[in-house]
Amino acid sequence: MDEAVAVTTTVARKRLTLVACILGSIIAFVDMTVVNVALPAIQRDLGGGLTAQQWIVDAYLLTLGSLILVGGSLGDIFGERRVFAFGVGAFGAASALCAAAPNAPLLIAARGVQGIAGALLTPSALAVIVTTFEGEERSAAIGTWTAWSGIAMVIGPLAGGELLAIGSWRWIFLINVPLALATIALILVAVPPREPGGRARVDLVGAALCVLGLGGTAFALIEQRRLGWSNPAIWGTLGGGVILLAAFVLWERRTSDPMLPLRLFRRRNFTVANVETFLVYAGLSTLGFFLTLFLQQLAGYSALHAGLALVPITIVMFLASPYVGRLSGRLGPRFFMAAGPLIAAAALVWLTRTRPDVSYVRDLLPPILIFAVGLSLTVAPLTATVLADASSGEAGIASAVNNAVARVAGLLGIAIVGVAVSGSTDQLNLHGFHMAMLVTALLVGAGGAIGAIGIANPRAEH
To answer: Which of 58, 162, 330, 436 is the most exposed place for a label (fewest CB within 10 A)?
Structure first.
């Protein structure tokens, strides 16, 4: 009887642990997309054009993407549970700052603080799952976490639209505060502490080089519209950013405690999966950003209706991702990581035909459903492949590398596509939207081609 009770207690704690990881990740992932539907309202309230809108999104992605490797390292040093809890609490506090921002520059700064907190909680949440579950149970847990995390990135516009319909854009940030408190309570109750991995140093030099390198590059790509390519501030920060990123790689090769362990890239699947992650997530971020702006600014949708338009993606991912996670664990990830992005790319090409007088059922729903199928086939196998060879001591840094690649991809994707989209104007137009969807399709399709060529299925065990 005692053994049965112990087993039941263990199962219950594992479930609550998974719920805590999902809820914590949802808070961070929702804020990557929920802001998109609020951008027109924020612009009306605080001012600024497309440039300010890009910065409100990219300030979060910049600090998140460049510091998430540090967050993974801190999880391995101090324990995933402690870093996870601290990150969730800091995210709730930063969200309150965003809600109180009186102008666009302070909102952008607060979004940067949010990204720092997200860099702590995101890799540690996934690392908690890896250290809690084993074998096929781990694949199923990752699939479930992936489903809810993917759903969060899509349900964000819906939640944001509803909150905007009943109140101010500030509510999209305030709602994070009670969610953060609930997550911390679950962590304290369910997540067991783990002995630190033994590393004693944080790579502060590497972190500084990464932040400054990405920041300089993003500044040049976004601000060139306002200042022009001939301005020394543009080509100077772009050149400086590229040099600092190169210095970051050289530093990581030489330092004894790198935040980016280059040894991980000796594993073929890890390297290929991260290249595919960069391409697919760059496309995913540009889709969410530009499609939401198109629906509101060109097609005349309200914020709520723009969010509702993406609900089918939520439903498909919720139903399919756990099953895909289990199936890819049995059959291998190669087929899924090749077919999924190619299917999603076909849907994006379809969107290049969309007009302002769009019919939802005829013009939007079919490509949205096709994109949802492609994304569902891709995300869980991609995450599982990245973590497949990681030991429990490397789980935090392995997940952090993949998360960093995804967030940096979003940062650079929005900045680079923004250059092609807007030209000399500071507003989205129809030609720009079509160009954004075409470039996005090329990015996502390239990810599928790389997965087909580069991913190797693990050998079956007899």
So the answer is: 330
Give the span between the Cα atoms of 368 and 373, in whole angstroms. Answer: 9
Number of domains into which the chain is organized:
2
pLDDT per residue as tens, the chain (462 positions): 455 545 556 777 788 888 888 888 888 877 777 787 888 888 888 877 777 888 888 888 888 877 877 777 787 778 888 888 999 999 999 999 999 999 988 999 999 999 999 888 887 887 788 777 776 677 777 778 877 776 676 667 677 777 777 778 898 898 889 989 999 998 888 887 776 655 557 788 888 888 888 888 888 877 777 777 788 888 898 899 899 999 998 998 888 878 777 888 888 888 898 999 999 988 888 888 888 888 888 888 887 788 778 778 778 877 887 788 888 878 888 999 999 999 999 999 999 999 988 888 889 999 999 999 999 899 888 888 887 766 655 665 677 678 778 878 887 887 777 776 755 455 678 888 888 899 899 999 999 999 999 888 876 544
Residue 412 and residue 400 share a domain: yes
Q: Does residue 310 sit within a domain?
A: yes
**CA pair distance 446, 276, nearest whole angstrom:** 8
| Same domain flag for 14 and 105 | yes
Q: Is residue 148 part of a domain?
A: yes
- Regarding whether 393 and 324 lie in a shared domain, the answer is yes
CB atoms within 10 A of CB 440: 28
d(CA 287, CA 290): 6
> Exposed, middle or buried by CB within 10 Å (0-12, 13-18, 19+), for 200?
exposed
Structure-block tokens of residue 326: 């289990």
Q: Does a structural domain hold residue 115? A: yes
Residues 216 and 156 reside in one and the same domain:
no
Cα–Cα distance between 345 and 283 in angstroms, integer? 9
- Tell me, yes or no, whether 459 lies in a domain: no
Q: What is the pTM of this model?
A: 0.74
Range of the domain at 75: 2-192+259-454
Can you tell me the distance from the alpha carbon of 351 to that of 135, in angstroms, rounded to the nearest whole number?
A: 40
330 in Cβ contact with 140 (< 8 Å) = no
